[in-house]
Design brief:
Elements (H helix, E strand, L loop, with lengths): L2 H31 L3 H29 L2 H12 L22 H21 L1 H10 L10 H25 L2 H25 L19 H29 L7 H15 L7 H5 L1 H13 L8 H26 L7 H26 L5 H14 L8 H21 L5 H18 L3 H13 L1 H4 L7 E8 L2 E8 L2 E6 L2 E7 L17 H6 L7 E5 L15 E6 L2 H9 L3 H4 L3 E6 L2 H4 L8 E6 L14 H9 L1 E10 L8 H10 L3 E7 L10 E7 L2 H10 L29 H9 L7
Parallel strand pairs: 5-6, 5-8, 6-7, 8-9
Antiparallel strand pairs: 1-2, 2-3, 3-4, 9-11, 10-11
Amino acid sequence: MRKISLLNSITFLSAFLLFQIELIVSKIMLPDFGGSYLVWGSCVVFFQAVLFLGYFFAYLWIRKAGIPSIRKFYFLLFLLPLLCFPGRGFPAITRVNLSVPLVANVFWYLFFSIGAVFFVLSTSSVILQSWLSGSELPERNNPYALFALSNLGSFTALLTYPFVFEMFLDLNQQLFLWRLMYFLLLALIGLAVFKIKLSPQAAVGAPGDRRGVSGQDCARWLAFSAAGVVMFLSVTNILTYEIAPIPLLWVLPLCIYLISFVLNFKRKSWVPAWVTDKFYLTFAWSILFFFIPLMRILPAFVEMGVICWFLFHLCMFCQYQLNKTKPADLNYLPLFYLVVSLGGFLGGFFTTWVMPLISFSACEYLVGLALIAVGLAIGSEFKLMGWINVFLVFYVCVTLKIWPVLFREYNVFGLIIIFWIYKVCYARISKNPRAFLLSIILILSVTSLIYPLWTKYDYIYRHRNYYGIYEVSRKEGKILLMHGTTTHGVQYTDKDKQDQPLAYYHKLTPVGQLLGSSWERKNMGVIGLGTAGLSAYARPGEVVDYFEIDPDVYFIADKIFTFLKNTKGRINFIFGDARVKIKEQPAGRYDILVVDAFSGDAIPVHLLTTEAIDEYHKHLSAGGVILFHISNRYLNFIPVLFSNAEYLGAYSCFKNNIENNKLDAYSTSWFAVTWDKGSFNRLLSGFNWNQYVPGKKRLLRPWTDKYSDMLLILDLKGVFSQIRYFQPFYW
């Protein structure tokens, strides 16, 4: 094996393993910590924090001990994780400590389980690049190419996980394969230590030597690295909240972010002229595409395609700026990566932890654009803005306020007009970095005033937290609770009709027909509160236990909607993840258990695995039934639940209803699981539920806490139905 190929292999495999263990351990944690966004958000911040610490360690090591020490101690560094995982078995999750915040539990388990190996792997890219720069290899003059290869390894890990590892292997098999690859990495490092020698001149700059790198350089690296992370995380949030909340599509922004590094930092950079020449155009139109999805005038996947293309261009521009300003003196290579990792950590922390607490929308997207403008302004030549630029800056702000008033529906000419205005204005504004920065700051500052104009709803309450964005609005004599693009409950404003359940819980829906019948029950459990529409079916003396992970939802259901006030039953509220909290309830308590929790547009996977259903079974009465609400625009959960029920020896059936706009009944899909033959027959004959017949299709592998695959249940007709009927030239 060529020596440079050996370094390439170590770099690629280190990044691959680093990213794979992120995905594996995150999936391991969900059933015990709750499948909420807060769990994943906590994981993301932990990973970025440890990545920064790894870069900081590499920086100090090389700065203080010098490059020659790498050959002596690098292999020993990678032996340290053998004292825990991967040298020992992966630690099991014991009882979660509910007396401390969830994030503390997440951080402690991550630190205890993969902290050591993640830290060691995070040092690899910087150390290997420094090793190459100090070697006798002909490629030593461009060690940054290894950075591109490192990002390619991360990209490959991300892309292959859902399509290969998750599809064919359960978590135990994934961990075993990961462990084998780590030992392969150890062998490659040992071989590299033996074969790749250092040149006699290999050394680092003297301590305190700062020549060649200015404070402006560091500030620029910080701004552009933070901007890239903020942009890809904010696009992830927009896809979740505003366009299409499909978990499979969440990997797209991160893939785009990683591939932009690969293309910029590879040995021969691929940076077409349009990346820089047309940047102002993408910047301007990106502002518009923050607001346009709010109007719901374009197909979701058209919006998604456009916004992902804009993200690619913006990330390419950020990485181009980093590559262009990277230090020519390779002694400063560790400092460069230290600042870049710090920017990534700060960008991730701000987007994931800070913005949900201070904003009502995914406006971190505009913050990312502002950071790009800051990076361009740092160190730029001072120019007076001039009255024309000042006028144009205010003009683009005013346009954002006027346009949605003039064009309330889809109008191709209206879109052409506003896109042309922004093209012309930003062609001039972009030539002055300070005017460029001022424009996005002004737009960001008035977003809260402009935002309601771009929507079709009359908002009476808006709230954002780590679980998402909640919006309550009035429309045609009703109030609606929205979570992203998904309606989570509807109620009439007329006091005489407020006790009528609507939407997914209407009397014409499968759950409405069942709960409104004479089906015998004393206690009912409901996982997911929403507007508490199901409490309208509670009978006098009946007890209904609501399991809700987000306490803020209780405020909405209790203070804005009136189903809870009007109910005839007795309501209990149990806050926390249902998988954890239901274990505290008595066995055989529930005659009916309704699983109605949604994350965006889909039921969280950890609530429908075989382990989850088996836990529900313990708390069902003898003739009890579990009802799963599986209405979804893009995913078909029926084959999964049928396989899970059959694996557990249960009877199962499903029923759908057609939308009835006149009666405010939504189209819904429900799935029932029971171990009682009599209850099953009654569902089939008395309520016309249907048995699932796989036909020629093979049964899906049952989903467990260690195995699930969303790709197998993706409904492509639902995905592309909006595009099929879209008329692009309609006005």
